């Protein structure tokens, strides 16, 4: 899940390298009901749930449950970690079908932070990214980097450089996951990576997918005429703009179905598909199964969705 509501995602997609300073890391352990607020916006934070499961909520967002292996990157936004006793029952049920997560204690969370002035997400003023445990290879690579960090002597000056490099690996994996999710579905990412016009249009769409986008709207966000934009888009993606936009919408729908209990009509409105009937037809045509079947299979098997 990626917060796409604000920030310069074009910059993220073009991030070539990073060098971090001021790396700090530590561990959190909770054996009883808890609520931990992180109000400092001056640092970029990353977390790995090592044991149990906890709820995470960023400023202005909804609480989401993160099981063992989940990773969070958040910057410039106050946030909090809490257990299920701190949530209203309706909030738990709305997100996870009334599942009971009270047994997730004890909880262990690895924490890391860096000075936001040199953070890779510094152009995303409200950026937050959640990487599920099933997102490979990103989740497992981050877990391995954390294991190495935990073996370091925090007081050793000779190992501070190693800690910085491991933190860079973690942040690069977070960026890599974001890039993959932002431009997924076997689209021609390479052909637009340095195309400011198409990047501007696509990141504007991804920030507000629920809007009733037209080719003219996308062209205006790119700063091109409708004809020039359509031709440029087709050359890059091999498909017309709206066909590609709808493919993105269906991928977003598949993620929402997997991570929430939102109704089909709510999802259709959220991603700009018009109606639940239209979403069901398009989803079945794209993925070979209805949204309801996909949601059930995802919960039973936790398997990635294969597109046709």
TrEMBL record:
It comes from the Bacteria. Keywords: DNA-binding, Transcription, Transcription regulation. Residues 196-297 form the HTH araC/xylS-type domain. Gene3D superfamilies: Homeodomain-like. It comes from Sphingobium wenxiniae (strain DSM 21828 / CGMCC 1.7748 / JZ-1). This is Helix-turn-helix protein. GO terms for molecular function: DNA-binding transcription factor activity; sequence-specific DNA binding. PANTHER family: HTH-TYPE TRANSCRIPTIONAL ACTIVATOR RHAS, HTH-TYPE TRANSCRIPTIONAL ACTIVATOR RHAS-RELATED. SMART domains: HTH_ARAC.
């Amino acid at each position: 899940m990626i917060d796409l509501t604000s920030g310069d995602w074009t910059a993220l997609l073009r991030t070539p390298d990073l060098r971090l300073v001021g790396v700090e890391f530590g561990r959190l352990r909770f054996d009883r009901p808890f609520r931990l607020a992180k109000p400092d916006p001056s640092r970029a934070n990353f977390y790995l749930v090592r044991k149990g499961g906890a709820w995470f909520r960023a400023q202005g967002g909804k609480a989401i449950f993160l099981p063992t292996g989940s990773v969070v990157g958040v910057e410039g936004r106050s946030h909090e970690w809490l257990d299920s006793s701190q949530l209203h029952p309706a909030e738990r049920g709305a997100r996870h079908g009334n599942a009971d997560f009270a047994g997730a204690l004890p909880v262990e969370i690895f924490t890391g932070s860096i000075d936001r002035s040199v953070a890779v997400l510094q152009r995303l003023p409200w950026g937050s990214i959640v990487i599920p445990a099933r997102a490979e290879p990103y989740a497992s690579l981050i877990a391995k980097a954390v294991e190495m960090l935990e073996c370091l002597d925090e007081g050793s000056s000779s190992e501070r450089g190693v800690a910085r490099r491991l933190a860079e690996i973690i942040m690069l994996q977070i960026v890599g996951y974001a890039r993959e999710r932002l431009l997924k579905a076997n689209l021609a990412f390479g052909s637009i990576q340095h195309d400011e016009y198409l990047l501007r249009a696509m990141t504007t769409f991804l920030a507000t997918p629920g809007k009733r986008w037209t080719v003219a709207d996308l062209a205006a966000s790119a700063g091109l005429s409708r004809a020039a934009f359509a031709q440029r888009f087709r050359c890059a993606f091999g498909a017309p703009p709206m066909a590609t936009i709808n493919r993105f919408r269906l991928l977003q729908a598949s993620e929402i179905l997997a991570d929430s209990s939102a109704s089909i009509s709510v999802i259709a409105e959220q991603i700009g598909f018009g109606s639940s009937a239209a979403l069901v037809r398009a989803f079945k045509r794209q993925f070979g199964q209805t949204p309801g079947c996909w949601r059930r299979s995802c919960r039973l098997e936790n398997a990635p969705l294969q597109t046709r």
